[in-house]
Amino acid sequence: MVMTIDAKGMYYRELNKMIRTAIEEGETEFVLDNINGQRYIGDAIKAKAKITIHGTPGNDMAVFMNGPTIEVFANGQDGIANTMNSGEIIIHGMVGDVIGYGMRGGKLMIKGDVGYRVGIHMKEYKTQVPVIVAGGCAGDFYGEYMAGGVMILLGLGAGEDKPIAGDYLGTGMHGGVIFLRGKVEEYQLGAEVAVMELDEKDLKLVTTYVTEWCEHFGHDVDEIMSRPFIKLKAVSSRPYGNLYAY
Amino acid sequence: MATELSPVSQIPPEFHVKVDHDQCRKCKRCVLNCSFGCMQFKDKVTPDHSKCVACHRCTTFCPENAISITDHPMVYKENANWTERIRQNTLKQAETGGILLTGMGNPKPYPILWDHLLIDACQVTNPSIDPLREPMELRTFLGSKPDKLEFERDEHNNVRLKTQLAPHIQLDIPVIFAAMSYGAVSHNVHKSLAIAANKMGTLMNTGEGGLHEDLYPYSGRIMVQVASGRFGVHSDYLKAGAAVEIKIGQGAKPGIGGHLPGEKVGLEISKTRMIPVGTDALSPAPHHDIYSIEDLSQLIFAIKEATDYMKPVSVKIAAVHNVAAIASGIVRAGADIVTIDGFRGGTGATPAIIRDNVGIPIELALAAVDQRLRDEGIRNQASLVCAGSIREAADVAKAIALGADACVIGTAALIALGCRVCQKCYTGNCAWGIATQRPELTRRLDPDVGSQRLCNLLTAWKHELQEVLGSLGVNSIESLRGSRERLRGIGLDKETLEILGVKPAGVGM
Ligand code: SF4
Ligand code: SF4
Fold first, then answer.
1. Burial class of residue B415 in the structure, from the number of CB atoms within 10 Å of its CB (0-12 exposed, 13-18 middle, 19+ buried)
2. Are both B88 and B171 inside the same structural domain?
3. Do B302 and B392 have their domain in common?
4. How far is B438 from chain A (nearest CA, A)?
């Protein structure tokens, strides 16, 4: 059974309570219509469930989420996938700031641009490797403090020589990997990252995720892959190891 | 490349270890017990003074009482400005080029205002109460209190409460254990705290390192923390805790993050923090999803949603200059508990410059916050918990009178477990098995013994608090809460007295 909720004018507490209760009762599929800024959809839900959202969900969507799939047919706002443990999110639009903060697992596919502070302190653990693929460009602090996971930025729609991400790229990064399809200037990079070329394994990984992204948003894989990517990795897994006197 | 310096350090030893070789029977217990490599055996016990940290492990376990530790007799040319500490630190930095790390709380001789506050007692006009014979209530409820209570009648015409109460935690003693992460302290410390918190009806706090699976059975008495690194934070963890705490700051290191070095991230810590073995656990200085009170509110309600509004949410901040206004914002943001950590609060590791120079004393912060929340008419909306060097039951009584709902003990709890406040926690070599992950050292603390020592400490404080209440002529801690009239200041200037809201000793009602 699919549970359809008309969320027009509904307060987030009521909406989320309805979803939580239904999930406890075994519901696995939801369609939320007329969503307009309701916060915390999917918050801490630990279940296999599919939530389809029509309209723009509010901040902290999928915060602490642990399992469900959320597909949004609109733009998203700030704080998506905050401290998320597992699950999948597909957004047919752009998103705001602080996306995937402290995200530990799961996948986030975004059609368009992402805002500032995306993927800060993303981390991985055992088989949990979080992934964020965004089709557009990113603001400042992309991948700051990154400790694990994979971030791919496609830069579609950016001009040939405009950088596709903002400043302080990968500042404090000490794990994980960033792939950028497009250029960034040396001055934009945090001191803790190095630019590298992709090896065969990297290419395979990027192709897999780009293919998945294309399936969601209807782009041509070969066309996207025809432009070279660069790879950013932490110079050291212990950027601040030598800072202290013992 | 930095030039190679001479292998001989210019830093003079801090302590002198004297072994009385007439008494020593060469059992080598001291050598085995010393985790700092100070005690060596070459025909006889030969201490390397430069390695001694005065942790007392050897002196405690020497069967012959043959060891004594004194300040190193080396004198510095006297200088009130260039103190020994400053000269020592300068040499260390000249040799390493590093930020000076340290552990535990601020050791500098700043005024301790608890020791300038005196408690009232009853004489003649209202009788004191004997706590040995009469009930004395220490029970405390942490959580948001309603603005007013409404009642209604049920079908049997009985009066019942109509107001819906926010979630509360019942404490049998208004003293809870401080947030100390698994990583900063050992698993056996966490277990000791968890057992004791359950036995004594109080709380322990995970700190920012997650909750080990072994401790989930105790989680009804565990406050789980969400800090900037989000280590070990997941839906089950939030739901397991008795309360959830958002850690913004810590008294020993306001405004800075934390680094748990990779060598401390072994298998168990890795599982609990949910990061790979051997990686540095870096906590960013701020939460990057909190840049304003509105953002804080957003996280508070993200946690309330995650726990179905069943658990109080605490926000912990360090006591800084603007603490009263910040606390007011926190209450308005929806926190049920505000925890304030003063600048003498402890830590497993922090740059000495921050620990020793940043923040303000908890006594002033507490008084300022309590007053501000009262003035704004929102004091009932959150409980006020104070931390940052609560050393003894007297401090608790004074804190409660200044307006705290409960107090937090970290260092005091560790001392009960054997800590000698040697301040070497950041080295990971704690000889008492507390601030270490070395298995041969963590074994030294038995959680059954440790929890019993903690229970003993709290039981002793409980009796002492009851004695104080009795002498004040009140029979519940609630009657002392915020009752600054029962305090007097001694040796304090006018401004300090005004901030504390207490009269000077010698002034009557
Ligand atoms: S523990 Fe005491 S008796 Fe044993 S070797 Fe050391 S100093 Fe001697
Ligand atoms: S916890 Fe251990 S290392 Fe830290 S001060 Fe206490 S005895 Fe020293």
1. middle
2. no
3. yes
4. 18
Domain-embedded: residue B7: no
Asked if the structure places residue B127 within a domain, the reply is no
Kindly state the tokens that stand for B136. Answer: 């004395």
Q: Which residue among A102, A126, A240 places its CB closest to the CB of B259?
A: A240
Domain final residue, candidates B101, B126, B160 = B101
pLDDT at B320: 97
Look at residues B56, B38, B57 and name the one whose alpha carbon lies nearest to residue B46.
B38
Using the mean position of ligand 2's atoms as its centre, give its distance from the Cα of residue A147 in Å. Answer: 30
CA–CA gap between residue B344 and residue B359 (Å, rounded): 9
Q: Domain boundary at B75, B101, B127, which?
A: B101
Instruction: Kindly state whether residues B84 and B150 are assigned to the same domain.
Output: no
Q: How far apart are CA B226 and CA B509, in angstroms?
A: 45
**Kind and range of the H or E run holding B169:** strand B169-171
Question: What does the pLDDT look like over A32-84, one tens digit per residue?
Answer: 999 999 999 999 999 999 999 999 999 999 999 999 999 999 999 999 999 99
Interface check B232 vs A, CB under 8 A: no
Contacts of A20 in chain B (CB under 8 A): 308
Shortest CB distance from B235 goes to which of A40, A85, A175? A85
Residues B77 and B191 in one domain: no
Domain that holds residue B453: 140-504
> Do B279 and B167 share a structural domain?
yes
The ligand placed nearest to the CA atom of residue B441 is 2
Which residues have C-beta within 8 Å of that of residue A65, sequence separation ≥ 6?
A42, A43, A44, A45, A81, A84, A85, A86, A87, A106, B235
Say which CATH number the domain at B91 has: 3.30.70.20
Integer angstrom CA distances of residue A211 from A158, A204, A205, A208: 20, 10, 10, 5
B441 and B368: one domain? yes
CATH number of the domain residue B439 falls in: 3.20.20.70
Question: Which pLDDT value is given to residue A73?
Answer: 98
Q: Give chain B's domain count.
A: 2
What are phi and psi for residue A206, nearest 5 degrees? -60, -45
Calpha distance B220→B335 (Å, rounded): 20
**CA–CA dist A51, A16 (Å, integer):** 12
Taking the Cβ of residue B88 and every Cβ of chain A, the question of whether any pair is shorter than 8 Å is answered with no
Residue of B97, B235, B282 lying closest to A174 (CB–CB): B282
In a domain, B4, yes or no: no
Q: How far is the CA of B146 from the centre of ligand 2 (A)?
A: 42
Give the pLDDT mean for B479-490: 97
Note whether residue B133 is domain-resident.
Answer: no
- Which residues does residue A172 pair with via DSSP β-bridges, in sequence order? none
DSSP assigned state of B345 = -
How does residue B1 score in pLDDT terms, banded at 50, 70 and 90?
Answer: very low
Global pTM value: 0.95
